[in-house]
Amino acid sequence: MTRETKSWQDIPIAGVCWKPATEYHTGDWRTFKPVYASEKCKKCLLCSMICPDAAIKWNETKEVVEFNYDFCKGCGICANECPGRAIQMIRESGE
Ligand code: SF4
Ligand code: SF4
How many structural domains are present in the chain? Predict the structure, then answer.
């Protein structure tokens, strides 16, 4: 018997998610997305430590911060806390 896969929209208020976070691509919750200006980055990796979705990784080869937009919800914490103001939140529509 196959069970119908539910989306996050089907979770009732105060409900408990029935799948691990790694299987839920929550990026489509986003209204604003973070964009990165490498020239302003101080390479402190504070953003990576504080992202509640673990959606920020340091690319050692390129020496830049990279976002995993499959999981970034657009909360803006990284942009608010970045000491170099290297992250800005823009509307998904690009406005
Ligand atoms: S918090 Fe800002 S300055 Fe620090 S690594 Fe992230 S983007 Fe760069
Ligand atoms: S906007 Fe929020 S979820 Fe997205 S990368 Fe920044 S801290 Fe993480």
Answer: 1
CATH number, domain with residue 40: 3.30.70.20
CA gap 67, 21 in Å, rounded:
16
Q: Categorize the per-residue pLDDT at 90 as very low, low, confident or very high, splitting at 50, 70 and 90.
A: very high
**Closest residue to atom 8 of ligand 1, CA basis:** 41
Establish if 14 belongs to a structural domain. no
56 in any annotated domain: yes
Among all bound ligands, the one having the nearest atom to the CA of 85 is: 1
What are the tens digits of pLDDT across the range 18-37?
A: 777 788 788 888 999 999 99
